[in-house]
Design goal:
The chain is α+β, with helices and mostly antiparallel strands. 42% of the residues lie in helices and 13% in strands. The protein has 7 helices and 4 strands. Strands 1-2-4-3 form a 4-stranded antiparallel sheet, sandwiched between helices. The site of flavin mononucleotide has 12 residues, from strand 3. Flavin mononucleotide binds next to strand 3.
Length: 222
């Protein structure tokens, strides 16, 4: 797939076919995607690819932790969005709820939807990107972000869909306990990955973008 096409067709996939993704395919995706640049070529990413029984156990433990109000997620820096950023967040949720037929006041279905994210959207595999705690800096977070997009774009070439998601790493102790991520590492972001179920309503979402003119300043041009 051409670069411009890949950038334009990539979208977050939140419904997957149950078909497993062969290890060899994910390996090829990662071989290419880790050509991503990183600050001083530090390549700070630690990659954990999870599938099968272990992924199912993590899904279950995440839901259990959510229900119990577990607070292990506090080691991750998160701030509530405000102003226009909050508005975009709310707009996104409304668009998804509309596609999924979830009513404004249907708290139960909204909760079910939220839990879906903590279950990696029931994808057959998940990729967790972690940093050694000593590397947790703006530079390394930027590196992880670049790798995320590289994985998403490379995955397209193999017919795979992805959803970058922080929900999947909000209970890092579950990842440590079940997927062997060491205490010295901080899960930063994860991706659900699998073959898209194009019948799944939320996969039909086309998210808008602000007009470039509203967030770009051109300096020194004629
Ligand atoms: C850093 C990051 C974290 C995200 N976390 C979540 C998440 O936890 N749950 C979710 O459903 N989508 C998540 N997304 C997907 C965004 O909602 C999505 O990228 C955005 O709405 C734009 O839509 P698109 O990816 O389809 O273009 C995340 C994306 C990024 C880049």
């Amino acid at each position: 797939m051409e670069i411009l096409e890949a950038l334009q067709v990539r979208k977050s996939i939140r419904g997957y076919k149950p078909d497993p993704v062969p290890k060899e395919i994910i390996n090829q995706v990662l071989e290419v995607a880790t050509r991503a640049p990183s600050a001083m070529n530090s390549q700070p990413w630690q990659i954990t690819v999870i599938t099968g029984k272990v992924l199912d156990e993590i899904r279950q433990e995440n839901i259990k932790a959510l229900k119990e109000g577990n607070t292990s997620a506090q080691e991750i820096i998160r701030k509530p969005f405000e102003g226009i950023y909050r508005k975009r967040q709310v707009d996104l949720a409304l668009q998804i709820f509309q596609l999924m037929g979830i009513g404004r006041d249907d708290k139960e279905k909204r909760t079910q939807w939220m839990m879906r994210g903590f279950r990696f959207f029931d994808a057959p595999a998940a990729i967790v990107l972690s940093l050694d705690k000593s590397m947790n800096s703006t530079l390394a977070l930027c590196d992880i972000g670049i790798l995320c997009q590289s994985i998403c774009l490379t995955a397209l070439e193999f017919g795979l869909g992805t959803c970058i998601e922080d929900q999947g790493i909000l209970f890092p102790d579950n990842l440590r306990k079940l997927a062997g991520i060491p205490e010295s590492s901080l899960p930063i972001m994860c991706l659900a990955i699998g073959y898209p179920d194009w019948e799944f309503p939320a996969n039909k979402l086309e998210t808008p973008r602000e007009a470039l003119a509203n967030n770009t300043r051109w300096v020194g041009f004629e």
